[in-house]
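Predict the holo structure. Ligand: adenosine-5'-diphosphate.
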Amino acid sequence: MKKPIVVKIGGSTLGNHDTTMEDLVALQKEGKTLVVVHGGANIVSEWLSRLQISTRFENGLRVTDRQSLDVVAAVLCGLVNKELVIGIQSLGGRAIGLSGVDGGFIEARIKDAALGYVGEVVKVNPEPIEAVVKGGYIPIIAPLGLAAKGEKLNVNGDPAAGDIAASLEAERLIFLTDVPGILDSSGKLLPSLSADEASSLIGSGVVSGGMIPKVEACLRALSTVPITQIVDGREPHALIKALSGKGDGTTIVLTGRMG
Ligand code: ADP
Ligand code: MG
């Protein structure tokens, strides 16, 4: 299999009629191998409140109980995933949706019992994704994992994308999000960072919240992936620009590969 470009689409850019789907179709037509992982936490939250399922928090983190887990699975795999597949196909692309439980490709385990059915990735089995890619389709991956007991788990899309990119030895890992990239303490964009620099931004608290799992995923992926990027998915054609090197955003590479 040709080394893929792994793209994580953030919940915050989903549904905003951005140009990501157009870009994916154009890149597929150029013969690029693509693998997409999506989030959708904000859409899950919307459905939890619509269904009047209340959420409990443990040290500020949402607890995923059985009922919430079912909503997570229904919304991510049923709604968000299918919207992306339909969107790509309606633009003339070829896409197949799958979650980490399909073919058992994301093995996960409960991260912290206090948080309920939230999983961390144990292992990615690349065969099911490779089969979809070989068939000429873009795999569109909903971040659910499968526990050893045969139970589905809610996995964060950022580490899932990082681990998938690492296991596929991707050419590149790109996060599309709702900020211009990694910003410094004064809000200025940091265009390029070494792994060490990125890591110390987490340590100093400059990188916080939803940016932490992205940076951590980049750092993990750098074991086999030469280039990782965090770019603004709200910018028109952010994906194509990121690949052409003409875009903005933050690029993280291992030291020694810079410049
Ligand atoms: P996504 O849906 O793409 O996963 P998140 O909201 O989870 O988006 O993560 C992106 C958020 O991370 C940004 O909107 C911003 O609020 C936050 N963030 C924290 N630290 C930083 C930083 N140093 N640079 C940029 N964004 C940051
Ligand atoms: Mg997030």
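The chain has eight helices and 14 strands. The CA atoms of residues 19 and 237 lie 6 Å apart.
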